[in-house]
């Protein structure tokens, strides 16, 4: 079952002789439970694509459907709510709130949505990610790898339809990157979580179930 479908996505900037085609007719499907890497060099359009898939920016043309919902048919407020409930984001910058401890950072999206917290599920996540002994720690008391694990736990906490990860190990050294990605893969399998990850690294991309390559705003290969 496809959890994510993008159809003929286009994004242009400028006009006339100065027009830039950041995305030039991108279509892709991602099945529930898949771990997909989107690989491309700087300027290939991969981050623009991720922003479209996550509803962070609107395309010039095309559609994105997540869990059966055409997200760009939603008005801004409804789209914001949909993102909070259905899409988990993991960015290169961990984006943790410095005055909140690990547990508070993880459950923050659930509380913002006014929903009750499933502490048994949160405990499963934090144990899987090796954070169960650090729940009271503040972000500045954690290593970079630990902070990224908190960001992953936060993304998982809402049990979203899909997690979008944008260069999630870009601020980490090689060994820590491998550790974090291994945990990301473990959590995707354990919680049947769909993950789409943007990366420029061939080595990192190999950890995914499938690799999509993008160049000049177009998909060139799908393995």
Note the topology.
Blueprint: E1 2-13, E2 20-31, E3 35-39, H1 46-53, E4 61-66, E5 69-70, H2 76-86, E6 87-91, H3 102-112, H4 119-128, H5 144-157, E7 162-166, H6 174-190, E8 195-199, H7 202-205, E9 210-215, E10 218-222
Parallel strand pairs: 3-8, 3-9, 6-7, 7-8
Antiparallel strand pairs: 1-2, 1-4, 4-5, 9-10
Strand content: 25-35%
Reported for the largest beta sheet, the result is: 6 strands, mixed
CATH topology: Rossmann fold
Overall number of strands:
10
**Helix content class:** 25-40%
Short account of what is shown:
This protein is an alpha/beta fold. Helix content is 34%, strand content 28%. α3 packs parallel to α5, α4 (119-128) packs antiparallel against α5 and α5 (144-157) packs parallel to α6.
Structure explained in plain terms:
- The chain has helices spanning 46-53, 76-86, 102-112, 119-128, 144-157, 174-190, 202-205; strands at residues 2-13, 20-31, 35-39, 61-66, 69-70, 87-91, 162-166, 195-199, 210-215, 218-222.
- By secondary structure, the protein is an alpha/beta fold.
- The chain has a single domain (31-58, 74-222), classed as Rossmann fold.
- The strands form 2 sheets. The chain has a 6-stranded mixed sheet, with helices on both faces.
- Helix 3 packs parallel to helix 5 (144-157) and helix 4 (119-128) runs antiparallel to helix 5 (144-157).
- It starts with a strand and ends with a strand.
- The mean pLDDT is 92.
């Amino acid at each position: 079952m496809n959890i994510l479908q993008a159809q003929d996505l286009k994004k242009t900037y400028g006009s006339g002789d100065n027009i830039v085609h950041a995305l030039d007719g991108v279509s892709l499907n991602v099945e529930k439970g898949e771990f997909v890497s989107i690989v491309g060099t700087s300027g290939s359009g991969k981050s623009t694509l991720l922003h479209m898939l996550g509803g962070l920016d609107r395309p010039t043309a095309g559609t994105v459907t997540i869990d059966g919902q055409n997200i760009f048919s939603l008005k801004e407020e409804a789209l914001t709510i949909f993102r909070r409930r259905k899409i988990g984001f993991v960015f290169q910058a961990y984006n943790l709130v410095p005055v909140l401890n690990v547990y508070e950072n993880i459950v923050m999206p659930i509380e913002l949505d006014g929903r009750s917290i499933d502490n048994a599920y949160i405990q499963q996540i934090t144990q899987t990610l090796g954070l169960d002994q650090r729940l009271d720690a503040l972000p500045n008391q954690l290593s970079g790898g630990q902070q990224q694990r908190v960001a992953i736990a936060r993304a998982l906490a809402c049990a979203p339809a899909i997690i979008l990860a944008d260069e999630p190990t870009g601020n980490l050294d090689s060994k820590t990157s491998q550790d974090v990605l291994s945990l990301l893969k473990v959590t995707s399998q354990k919680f049947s979580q769909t993950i789409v990850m943007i990366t420029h690294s061939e080595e990192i991309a190999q950890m995914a179930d499938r690799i999509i390559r993008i160049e000049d705003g177009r998909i060139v290969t799908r393995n």
